[in-house]
Design brief:
11% helix, SH3 type barrels, 25 strands
């Protein structure tokens, strides 16, 4: 079974890039000549603001790359809108080890794609690159339509480990977004984050009766799924004596039931293709065997193992989207094993004890690949690396190997 699963694992893995669907969605971009070109745009669900996009032009199935120097604006209908802007941006770090002593921002002039959050009499823009998050804005009174950064900066105090924040963005809002609905108290309670700033800018546009206001309505948050995961394990255990070659024992392959409950946390970027998984799982292995041995009185060694445990794989999963509600996934996990009473007992021909080895397992890795249908039903093939079982006894070495077929059903 393990050879079959390994073959299927390798076959599907090498085929993923051939069958996974690239998601292109309807949108447009505006080129350097101010022409609006309807097209299909590859939706990469950008975690960081892009510098280029991949598009398919009408009547052309071959995609092409257009970069920031060729595109003034682009949009995926109903989801995203980005505008190109030459802006002054402060990239000062919030890492205390390299934090600046200077309270004032250090601006660099850069050409960037900014995501449009609000567009109206007062417009709000968003830029993210790794841990760096910056907001920009302009109003209908801004000279030359210049887009300005809302200033928010961490800086060290007196060179020690204490730091403070430059919250000048609140002063900028107070000066440029004057409206009876926006009180000083509301500004003071506005944090430098998307939800707070969007709320304030929408209030201003409502106050000014702005027409044709654009608002980015994407609700991005980590989603959660709970999955029941019954399945079948194909496991075997090898036990080797360091000093007695005649007591090298192979317990043989056993098919056993396993049951897991998986919590999956799907990350809110890259089209929800990445997730973290945790799956407490009950599994067991029970076997006995007789072996001829010149090192045991009576010439026979009877070995028996009774092993029950809770495995807890903690890992990362990546999805590849197909058509009609199907998707393929691959995951890798670091597996912790918790057992309380497992043991390997070796007895002589007359039933007297030769050795009793308490099971003390070592963490190992799990590699899985599978498919999911309509985010509800799944099937996974999983292979575990060899797991040492008797770490507490230097006279013995062991390896426990498992391959699994796992069925899944998502509650939500």
């Amino acid at each position: 079974m393990r050879k079959l699963l390994l073959f299927l694992f390798i076959t599907i893995t090498t085929s993923i890039n051939c069958y996974s669907q690239i998601v292109f969605e309807k949108g447009y971009f505006i080129n350097e000549n101010n022409q609006k070109i309807d097209c299909l745009i590859k939706n990469s669900d950008w975690k960081n603001n892009p510098e280029k996009i991949e598009v398919k032009l009408p009547q052309n199935e071959i995609s092409q790359i257009v970069d920031i120097h060729q595109v003034k604006e682009f949009s995926i209908n109903g989801k995203y809108k980005f505008v190109r802007a030459l802006v002054k941006i402060d990239r000062s770090s919030e890492n205390i080890n390299i934090m600046s002593l200077d309270k004032n921002p250090v601006f660099n002039v850069e050409l960037l794609f900014l995501k449009v959050l609000i567009e109206g009499d007062a417009s709000l823009y968003y830029y993210v690159n790794g841990s760096l998050v910056r907001f920009f804005y302009k109003t209908n009174t801004t000279v030359n339509d210049e887009i300005t950064q809302l200033v928010y900066k961490f800086y060290l105090i007196n060179g020690d480990s204490s730091y403070a924040k430059n919250n000048y963005y609140k002063q900028q809002i107070y000066l440029d977004l004057k409206c009876e609905k926006i009180t000083i108290s509301a500004i003071e309670n506005t944090d430098y984050k998307k939800s707070d700033l969007m709320k304030l800018f929408m209030q201003y546009n409502e106050c000014k009766n702005s027409k044709n206001v654009y608002q980015n309505l994407e609700q991005k948050k980590t989603s959660f799924k709970l999955n029941i995961r019954p399945g079948i394990n194909s496991s075997d255990l090898e036990l080797n004596s360091v000093n007695l070659e005649s007591l090298d024992i192979t317990f043989g392959n056993q098919y056993n039931f396993r049951f897991g409950l998986e919590a999956e946390f799907i990350f809110p970027f890259n089209q929800n293709k990445w997730s973290a998984i945790v799956e407490p799982t009950y599994q067991y292995y029970k076997s006995q065997i007789m072996r001829q041995s010149s090192d045991v009185s009576g010439g026979e060694a009877h070995a028996a193992v009774d092993y029950k445990s809770i495995e807890v794989p903690i890992g990362i999963r990546h999805y590849f989207f197909l058509k009609n509600g199907f998707k393929i996934f691959a995951n890798v996990s670091y597996l912790l094993d918790f057992n309380k009473q497992g043991a390997i007992d070796i007895t002589r021909y007359d039933g007297s004890s030769f050795a009793s080895l308490k099971l003390n397992t070592k963490p190992n890795f799990a590699f899985g690949i599978g498919g999911k249908y309509k985010d509800r039903y799944s099937l996974e093939m999983r292979i575990l690396s060899g797991r040492s079982m008797v770490l507490s006894d230097a006279n013995w070495e062991s390896s426990y190997k498992t391959a699994s077929i796992i069925f899944g059903y998502s509650f939500f």
